[in-house]
Amino acid sequence: MKRLVFATNNAHKLEEARKILGDRLEIVSLEEIGCNDDIPETAPTLEGNALIKARWIHDRYGLDCFADDTGLMVDALNGAPGVMSARYAGPAHDSAANMKKLLSEMEDKEDRRAHFSTAVALILDDQEYVFEGRVDGVISRTPAGTQGFGYDPVFIPDESGISFAEMDADAKNAISHRGRAMQKLADFLSR
Ligand code: IMP
Q1: So which residues are the catalytic ones?
Q2: CA 51, CA 153: separation in Å to the nearest integer?
Q3: For residue 24, is pLDDT > 90?
Q4: CA distances from 127 to 11, 55, 63, 135 (A)
């Protein structure tokens, strides 16, 4: 089976990717190729950051790989936290702190519209490709659910009345930003 590195060590993302791509590809994490680098995410766009991560692995390890970058864009906050979503409350990448800050910034906002966007960058046979996925929804007033990760407890997609953290992995995958981008990747790879 062909191997493809997914430039992440996030267990939730790996599980999501293996569900979508795992029947035709062996998806390998950074840890599994012995990469412990803290890959810098310094680009001003999701696509730019996804490409930085994919190129990092391709340049150093010579392996085919893909990488993703996601942002939560909130209308009432002019698109924030956006590309800064992981570091919204500071450099610690602390999801609980990020969510707390988001709910506090949103406290007096009636407009709760938001969307997640994901860019997936693939490097295959030295060629670069980018796939995008998006899901629209609203920011809830209180967190709900224990599944998933990141901002899942406060994001309610339009397609369902419950938060991402209240959905099982398959239900989230079917409509999520990353699920949609990964499905485009899967469709491309099966051509
Ligand atoms: P990353 O680019 O995937 O590292 O994501 C950036 C930020 O968005 C991190 O704070 C993640 O926790 C958050 N994030 C990414 N994907 C999801 C998701 O599927 N649900 C909720 N939060 C997410």
Answers
A1: 69
A2: 28
A3: no
A4: 27, 11, 12, 27
